[in-house]
Amino acid sequence: MRFHFKTDYDQDIRLFEDGWTFSLYAALLVLALALPLMIDPFFLGEATNVLIWAIAGLGLMLLTGQTGQVSLGHSAFMALGCYSCVLMMEANVPFVLAFLLAGVITGVVGALIAIPALKLHGVYLAIATLALAILADDIIVLLKEWTDGVNGKMSPPIDLFGYEISRWNNPIEWYYLTLAVVLMVTLFYRNLLRAPLGRAFAAVRDSEISAQAMGVNVAQTKTIAFGISCAITGLGGALMGLFAGAFNNETFNFLLSIQLLMMIVVGGLGFIHGAFLGAVVIAFLPQVLSMTTDLFGRGVAIPGLESGVFGVILILFILFEPMGLYGRWLKIRTFLELFPFARKDMFKRQKSYLKTERLR
């Protein structure tokens, strides 16, 4: 068991708790860098897909897990990031600049949409953002001069400082590119949580009235959170479209938003690790279901099986493990550290709202 005796605030907000924690993440980074040498190209592609899902999940996690604002419309922002990046690449804008600008454009649009949308609360906000996701499908079709409508667009090859990266010709380079984006987004996310803005996000999540009483500008904080969340999700959408090779309006339908929400709930709402654990579930569950149906169903496809299994898993986690996979791991680790002194009700859920906020 490790005890942390903190004597100043700098120790409370440092990036790693101690040297042991740093060594664990360093070992994980070494494993991630060596992964292309350990697995074949098919599973390397699946690992790249997990990382792309994790980027999009981190975006939604910042809004829902850290700020407490439920959104079912992030598939629209993934589409905006994807189309913005590809259109700029087709206009001969360098990939790095087009990729970053796609995130900026998506973040600005998200912040503008958030100004009226965040006047709503709870389920009403979720319904409003869900309507945005459904509307995005029609907007893509209507703007066929730019988006090619239902025919979709082909993803151009990535030209990174004169070196061409293609999913099929350079899967290892694609993986390292995605890993670099994941590391940058994760470090940005982690440092944001240590900053005053990140503390304001948590205050708004726990109680808007208490946050306002402490001097937090609730409307501004929620708008900034929505904008940053959309920017990160837009980066994930850009990588997803480029990785797929071809995409259209059906690629970013509202079911993608449901999968994103399920991912952060199953992984662990409010934890950075939860986005990665949920991404593993989202990316590999369809493969597991496909292999299972091939083994027991003799290759017979069952319509709606994937959506049904996703729904059952989401319901089970909400009922029996609201803290997700990472929350379950925290409980197991704490039990082992405190054994035999761990108490059964140690992780009993507490109300995180005031009585005046129950009906909002």
From TrEMBL:
<keyword id="KW-1133">Transmembrane helix</keyword>
<dbReference type="Pfam" id="PF02653">
    <property type="entry name" value="BPD_transp_2"/>
</dbReference>
<dbReference type="InterPro" id="IPR001851">
    <property type="entry name" value="ABC_transp_permease"/>
</dbReference>
<keyword id="KW-0812">Transmembrane</keyword>
<feature type="transmembrane region" description="Helical">
    <location>
        <begin position="122"/>
        <end position="143"/>
    </location>
</feature>
<feature type="transmembrane region" description="Helical">
    <location>
        <begin position="174"/>
        <end position="192"/>
    </location>
</feature>
<feature type="transmembrane region" description="Helical">
    <location>
        <begin position="224"/>
        <end position="246"/>
    </location>
</feature>
<keyword id="KW-1003">Cell membrane</keyword>
<feature type="transmembrane region" description="Helical">
    <location>
        <begin position="296"/>
        <end position="320"/>
    </location>
</feature>
<dbReference type="InterPro" id="IPR043428">
    <property type="entry name" value="LivM-like"/>
</dbReference>
<feature type="transmembrane region" description="Helical">
    <location>
        <begin position="95"/>
        <end position="115"/>
    </location>
</feature>
<feature type="transmembrane region" description="Helical">
    <location>
        <begin position="258"/>
        <end position="284"/>
    </location>
</feature>
<feature type="transmembrane region" description="Helical">
    <location>
        <begin position="45"/>
        <end position="63"/>
    </location>
</feature>
<keyword id="KW-0472">Membrane</keyword>
<feature type="transmembrane region" description="Helical">
    <location>
        <begin position="20"/>
        <end position="39"/>
    </location>
</feature>
<protein>
    <submittedName>
        <fullName>Branched-chain amino acid ABC transporter permease</fullName>
    </submittedName>
</protein>
